Amino acid sequence: MTEAPRTIVAVKFAWEKAGKTYDYFVDFPVEVGQRIHVPTKRGEAKVEVMEIKSESELASVAALRPVEDLRTDEEKQAKYPNGQRMFSEDRTMLDAKGNRSVFDDVDR
User: Fold this and answer.
1) In whole angstroms, what is the distance from residue 10 CA to residue 79 CA?
2) For residues 84 and 95, what is the distance between their CA atoms, to the nearest angstrom?
3) What is the pTM of this model?
4) How much of the chain, in percent, has pLDDT values that exceed 70?
5) If you write DSSP's letter for every residue of 34-64 in order, what string do you get?
Protein backbone atom coordinates (compact mmCIF):
# COMPACT_ATOMS: atom_id res chain seq x y z
CA MET A 1 0.00 0.00 0.00
CA THR A 2 1.48 3.32 -1.11
CA GLU A 3 0.84 6.52 0.81
CA ALA A 4 -0.10 9.64 -1.10
CA PRO A 5 2.64 12.30 -0.86
CA ARG A 6 1.97 15.01 1.71
CA THR A 7 1.35 18.55 0.55
CA ILE A 8 4.20 20.96 1.23
CA VAL A 9 3.94 24.74 1.38
CA ALA A 10 6.60 27.43 1.14
CA VAL A 11 5.77 30.14 3.67
CA LYS A 12 7.09 33.63 4.32
CA PHE A 13 7.47 35.14 7.77
CA ALA A 14 6.51 38.82 8.10
CA TRP A 15 10.01 39.83 9.21
CA GLU A 16 11.71 38.23 6.17
CA LYS A 17 12.30 41.01 3.66
CA ALA A 18 14.48 39.24 1.06
CA GLY A 19 11.76 36.84 -0.09
CA LYS A 20 13.21 33.87 1.80
CA THR A 21 10.70 31.07 2.35
CA TYR A 22 10.54 28.03 4.61
CA ASP A 23 8.89 24.68 3.83
CA TYR A 24 6.28 22.97 6.02
CA PHE A 25 4.03 19.93 5.59
CA VAL A 26 0.27 20.62 5.67
CA ASP A 27 -2.54 18.20 6.49
CA PHE A 28 -5.43 20.56 5.72
CA PRO A 29 -6.66 22.35 2.55
CA VAL A 30 -4.54 25.41 1.81
CA GLU A 31 -4.28 28.08 -0.91
CA VAL A 32 -1.56 30.51 -1.96
CA GLY A 33 -1.99 33.79 -0.06
CA GLN A 34 -3.69 32.11 2.90
CA ARG A 35 -2.31 32.71 6.40
CA ILE A 36 -1.55 29.71 8.61
CA HIS A 37 -0.02 29.00 12.03
CA VAL A 38 3.34 27.19 12.08
CA PRO A 39 5.56 26.05 14.96
CA THR A 40 8.91 27.80 15.48
CA LYS A 41 11.67 27.56 18.07
CA ARG A 42 10.04 30.49 19.90
CA GLY A 43 6.45 29.26 19.74
CA GLU A 44 3.75 29.75 17.12
CA ALA A 45 3.89 32.23 14.25
CA LYS A 46 1.40 33.39 11.63
CA VAL A 47 2.82 33.13 8.12
CA GLU A 48 1.63 33.60 4.55
CA VAL A 49 1.59 30.70 2.07
CA MET A 50 3.68 31.73 -0.94
CA GLU A 51 3.75 28.46 -2.91
CA ILE A 52 2.34 24.93 -2.83
CA LYS A 53 4.87 22.18 -3.62
CA SER A 54 4.69 18.45 -4.23
CA GLU A 55 8.11 17.70 -2.74
CA SER A 56 10.87 19.30 -0.70
CA GLU A 57 14.07 18.21 0.98
CA LEU A 58 13.72 20.99 3.57
CA ALA A 59 10.26 20.29 5.04
CA SER A 60 10.49 18.48 8.36
CA VAL A 61 7.66 19.95 10.49
CA ALA A 62 3.91 20.13 9.92
CA ALA A 63 1.93 23.37 9.95
CA LEU A 64 -0.55 23.62 12.82
CA ARG A 65 -3.78 25.10 11.45
CA PRO A 66 -5.22 27.86 9.25
CA VAL A 67 -5.66 31.34 10.71
CA GLU A 68 -9.33 31.90 11.49
CA ASP A 69 -10.48 35.33 10.33
CA LEU A 70 -12.95 36.75 12.89
CA ARG A 71 -13.33 40.17 11.25
CA THR A 72 -16.65 41.43 9.91
CA ASP A 73 -16.85 42.50 6.27
CA GLU A 74 -16.64 46.15 7.35
CA GLU A 75 -13.49 45.46 9.40
CA LYS A 76 -11.90 43.64 6.45
CA GLN A 77 -12.49 46.71 4.25
CA ALA A 78 -11.37 49.29 6.84
CA LYS A 79 -7.99 50.77 5.90
CA TYR A 80 -5.92 53.76 6.93
CA PRO A 81 -5.18 56.47 4.31
CA ASN A 82 -1.75 54.87 3.74
CA GLY A 83 -3.43 51.58 2.72
CA GLN A 84 -2.64 49.60 5.88
CA ARG A 85 -5.48 47.52 7.28
CA MET A 86 -7.08 48.71 10.54
CA PHE A 87 -7.88 45.29 12.08
CA SER A 88 -6.00 42.00 12.38
CA GLU A 89 -7.69 38.62 11.81
CA ASP A 90 -8.48 38.36 15.54
CA ARG A 91 -10.23 41.78 15.40
CA THR A 92 -7.45 43.65 17.24
CA MET A 93 -7.16 47.25 16.07
CA LEU A 94 -3.84 48.02 14.39
CA ASP A 95 -2.06 51.36 14.14
CA ALA A 96 -1.33 53.10 10.82
CA LYS A 97 1.92 51.13 10.50
CA GLY A 98 0.13 47.78 10.89
CA ASN A 99 1.32 47.16 14.47
CA ARG A 100 -0.84 46.09 17.39
CA SER A 101 -1.81 48.79 19.85
CA VAL A 102 0.11 48.84 23.13
CA PHE A 103 -3.29 49.07 24.83
CA ASP A 104 -4.95 46.02 23.22
CA ASP A 105 -4.53 43.80 26.29
CA VAL A 106 -5.56 46.34 28.97
CA ASP A 107 -9.12 44.98 29.36
CA ARG A 108 -8.16 41.29 29.45
Assistant:
1) 28
2) 8
3) 0.70
4) 88
5) -EEEEEETTEEEEEEEEEEES--SS--SB--
